[in-house]
Design goal:
Blueprint (H helix, E strand, L loop, with lengths): L1 H14 L5 E8 L2 E11 L2 H8 L14 E7 L2 E10 L8 H4 L2 E7 L5 E9 L8 E7 L1 E6 L3 E3 L2 E6 L8 E11 L1 H36 L1
Parallel strand pairs: 1-7
Antiparallel strand pairs: 1-2, 2-4, 3-4, 5-6, 6-11, 7-10, 8-11, 9-10
Length: 212
C-alpha cells in the first residue's frame, strides 16, 4: 500500500504538466533534506490527492512526509519534505522507485557520493528539475547548470533513457562562496554591534550634556 501511495505522489508530479515541478535535495553535513514542490490546479480531484499520506522510506508504512499546502488564486502549492540521516537515504522511495542503477556512499569519513542512472518507468511526464544544494565543497559533478551552491539537472522525456546524475561532496570543507557568505555575515554583525555601541555612547553623552 505504501509503495502505491508513493507512486501516486509521482503521478501527482506527472499531472502537474505545465505547472511548477521541482525535486530538491539539501545536503547539510549530518542530514539530507528531501523536498518535492508541486503546483496544481485548485480543484476537488487534486485536493483529494493531496490529502493522502505519502511515505519517504522504502518498506516503512509509518514515517510520513511533512506536508504543507497553500492556496494561491486558482492554484494549490504543495510542499512535501523529509529530513533523512544520511544512512537512511539509501532507502529513499524516490531513489528506489525511479532508478535501476544507484550508488549512494554516505559512510565514508571524507565525502558523500551519489550516482543515479537508468531511469525506471516511474512517471509518464519526466519534465522535472532535480536540484542538489550544499554549502560543502563539491569535488565532482555532472550538473547541467550551477547557480551558486545549487546544482541543477534537467530531466526530460527526451533524456530519460540516458539521464545520469553524479556528484561527490566533501564532508569536511566548505565551498568558497559559502566561506565568503560567512565572512560577510560576520562583518555585518560586527558593524551592527559597533553602530549600536556608538549610538548608545552618543545618547549617553547627549543626556549628560542636557543635564549640565
Amino acid at each position: 500500500m505504501k509503495k502505491i501511495k508513493f507512486i501516486i505522489l509521482l503521478l501527482i508530479i506527472m499531472i502537474a504538466s505545465g505547472c511548477t515541478k521541482e525535486y530538491n535535495l539539501i545536503i547539510d553535513n549530518d542530514k539530507i533534506i528531501e523536498e518535492f514542490n508541486i503546483t496544481l490546479d485548485n480543484n476537488e480531484e487534486n485536493k483529494q490527492r493531496l490529502e493522502l499520506d505519502y511515505f519517504p522510506l522504502h518498506a516503512d508504512d509509518t514515517t510520513k512526509y511533512e506536508k504543507k499546502i497553500e492556496k494561491v488564486d486558482n492554484l494549490l502549492n504543495a510542499h512535501f519534505s523529509y529530513t533523512y540521516n544520511p544512512k537512511e537515504f539509501v532507502n529513499a522511495n524516490s531513489i528506489n522507485e525511479c532508478f535501476e542503477t544507484k550508488e549512494i556512499l554516505v559512510d565514508n569519513q571524507d565525502y558523500y557520493y551519489f550516482k543515479l542512472e537508468n531511469m525506471k518507468e516511474c512517471m509518464s511526464d519526466y519534465n522535472l528539475d532535480i536540484n542538489i544544494t550544499t554549502n560543502n565543497k563539491v569535488l565532482d559533478n555532472n550538473a547541467d547548470e550551477i547557480k551558486d551552491n545549487k546544482y541543477i539537472w534537467h530531466l526530460t522525456d527526451d533524456n530519460k533513457s540516458t539521464f545520469k546524475l553524479e556528484m561527490k561532496i566533501d564532508k569536511n570543507n566548505y565551498s568558497k562562496s559559502s566561506n565568503k557568505s560567512l565572512f560577510y555575515t560576520v562583518v555585518l554583525v560586527v558593524v551592527t554591534v559597533v553602530i549600536i555601541i556608538l549610538a548608545i555612547y552618543l545618547i549617553i553623552k547627549r543626556n549628560k550634556s542636557n543635564k549640565i
